[in-house]
């Protein structure tokens, strides 16, 4: 091996978990958390718009971009709101986080971990939603998921035009 030291800069709990997973490697693990994650408060205007879209039928699709997005959304979104929406997850870890919270029906890509993989799955899945919302970290992957949102809305518009 070209090196014998591994610096882990994740938040403390995650750094400790990773060090345990890598314990069998012949490396000295140095844990030095460089940051921590904190939930941003959901914009009240956007939350109100989301709640209004849930009361209008059909309920929207919520697309979660990461397990962290799930973690922080669960702290702020009412359970009734989440239960009323169709849910989608970019990757399996996000889907597992939703399912661990009791939200069993989660659309996820058949394979792969990208927004493009989810978009392909959404093309193959009957959707009740005519609107989609992205649940992501500010400045995160939300721009890459815009295609999924546009595709859901375009499919709904095409179905309505028939």
Topology:
Blueprint: E1 5-8, H1 12-21, E2 28-31, H2 44-55, E3 61-64, H3 67-76, H4 79-84, E4 86-89, H5 92-100, E5 106-108, H6 115-124, E6 132-135, H7 142-161
Parallel strand pairs: 1-2, 3-4, 3-6, 4-5
Helix pairs in contact: 3-5, 6-7
Can you give keywords for this protein?
162 residues, alpha/beta, two-stranded parallel ribbon, 14% strand, elongated
* Beta-strand content estimate: 5-15%
- Please trace the helix and strand order, writing H or E for each element: EHEHEHHEHEHEH
Which value, in Å, is the CA radius of gyration? Answer: 19 Å
Categorize the overall geometry: elongated
Mean of the pLDDT scores? 82
Q: Largest sheet, order of strands side by side?
A: 5-4-3-6
Task: Describe the protein in words.
There is one protein chain. The protein is of the alpha/beta class. It is built from seven helices and six strands. A four-stranded parallel sheet has the order 5-4-3-6, with helices on both faces. It has a two-stranded parallel ribbon with strand order 1-2. The model has no long low-confidence stretch (mean pLDDT 82).
Quick rundown:
The protein is α/β, with parallel strands linked by helices and 162 residues long. The chain has helices at residues 12-21, 44-55, 67-76, 79-84, 92-100, 115-124, 142-161, and strands at 5-8, 28-31, 61-64, 86-89, 106-108, 132-135. The strands form two sheets. It has a four-stranded parallel beta sheet with strand order 5-4-3-6, with helices on both faces. The chain has a two-stranded parallel ribbon with strand order 1-2.
